[in-house]
Specification:
91% of the residues lie in helices and 0% in strands. With 92 residues, the chain is an all-alpha fold.
């Protein structure tokens, strides 16, 4: 049986890893946002959306999607990793 102290330590470890990966994911989301907004701003200055502007917009949206996927999947993966560590330690 898992003690409350060990359960709290593992919960704090999960929370810490979720914060780390959340910062990485949201940094990518922010970078993608600025790339996308920059391409729209440049296309407004030039008067039309040219190929490079739509390419930058697409890259920005892809970066935002990758950042979202990293932040969500990493939180779930860290939960499973810490849960398996608790289960393997409990059986030993």
């Amino acid at each position: 049986m898992v003690s409350w102290g060990r359960a709290w330590r593992k919960a704090l470890a999960w929370f810490g890893w979720t914060l780390v990966w959340g910062f990485v994911g949201f940094a990518l989301i922010g970078l993608g946002f600025f790339v996308a907004i920059g391409s729209l701003y440049n296309s407004r200055i030039l008067g039309n959306i040219e190929f490079y502007a739509t390419g930058d917009l697409f890259i920005g949206l892809v970066l935002m999607l990758i950042g979202l996927i990293i932040s969500v999947l990493a939180a779930v993966a860290s939960f499973f990793k810490i849960n398996s560590e608790i289960n393997s330690e409990d059986k030993s």
